[in-house]
């Protein structure tokens, strides 16, 4: 037989097996070395004594981390996008991104967590409702002059309960609402003096 160690064929060394917490992942050296400062790059590209990397019996690098969160890490190295399944906690991915020392990913996950906190920290959205009473002809004007933040909720026809002179106009109650946490200056422009009087009269009843 021939003496001396056989160097592995190039193809074999291109692929890297990782055993992350008992789950196998296969990737290429090129992918794993996308972030030069990362733990994964040091692990498989500078396979030196400094890391003292352990391999299991299959030759896979042993990494004692949670495999659940390794998927998004590996995928990020593959295509540069942060994709996290709904059931995974961003904090878990952040933890791993920090462990593997992938700075750009740490930044991305932190941004994502911050966005989510902004979305949820407002707590339950409170709404302010207003009921405006107006006549048929004033409806379009009122809806079109509603200021920002106010949303048209409902229109209730209350028949023609008030008779001005001979004109018998249909009256409506117009319900509008807005979220409290947007801006505090959402003022509904009242459609007309007449509607205001009606509104007051209605509220006294």
UniProtKB/TrEMBL annotation:
Record Pfam families: BTB_2
Supply the InterPro entries for this chain.
BTB/POZ_dom, SKP1/BTB/POZ_sf, T1-type_BTB
What CDD domains does UniProt report for this protein, alphabetically?
Answer: BTB_POZ_KCTD2
Q: Which gene encodes it?
A: Kctd2
Q: What is this protein called?
A: KCTD2 protein
> Which organism was this protein described from?
Anthoscopus minutus
Give the record's GO CC terms: Cul3-RING ubiquitin ligase complex; cytoplasm
Q: Which Gene3D superfamilies match?
A: 3.30.70.2000, 6.10.140.750, Potassium Channel Kv1.1, Chain A (3.30.710.10)
The terms under GO molecular function for this entry are: cullin family protein binding
Where is the BTB domain positioned along the sequence?
A: 14-117
GO BP, one annotated term = protein homooligomerization
PANTHER family found in the cross-reference section: BTB_POZ DOMAIN-CONTAINING PROTEIN KCTD2, POTASSIUM CHANNEL TETRAMERISATION DOMAIN CONTAINING PROTEIN
């Amino acid at each position: 037989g021939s003496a001396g160690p056989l160097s592995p064929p190039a193809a074999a060394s291109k692929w890297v097996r990782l055993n992350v917490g008992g789950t196998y992942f296969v990737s290429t050296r090129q992918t794993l070395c996308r972030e030069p400062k990362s733990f994964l790059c040091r692990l498989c590209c500078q396979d030196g004594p400094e890391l003292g990397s352990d391999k299991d019996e299959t030759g896979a690098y042993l990494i004692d981390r949670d495999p659940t969160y390794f998927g998004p890490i590996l995928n990020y190295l593959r295509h540069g996008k942060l994709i996290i399944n709904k059931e995974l906690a961003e904090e878990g991915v952040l933890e791993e991104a920090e462990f593997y020392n992938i700075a750009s990913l740490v930044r991305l996950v932190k941004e994502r967590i911050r966005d989510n906190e902004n979305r949820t920290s407002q707590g339950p959205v409170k709404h302010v409702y207003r009921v405006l009473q107006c006549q048929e002809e004033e409806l379009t004007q009122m809806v079109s002059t509603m200021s920002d933040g106010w949303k048209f909720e409902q229109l209730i026809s209350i028949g023609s309960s008030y008779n001005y002179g001979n004109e018998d106009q249909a009256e409506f109650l117009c319900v509008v609402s807005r979220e409290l946490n947007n801006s505090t200056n959402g003022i509904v422009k009242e459609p007309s003096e007449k509607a205001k009087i009606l509104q007051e009269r209605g509220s006294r009843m």
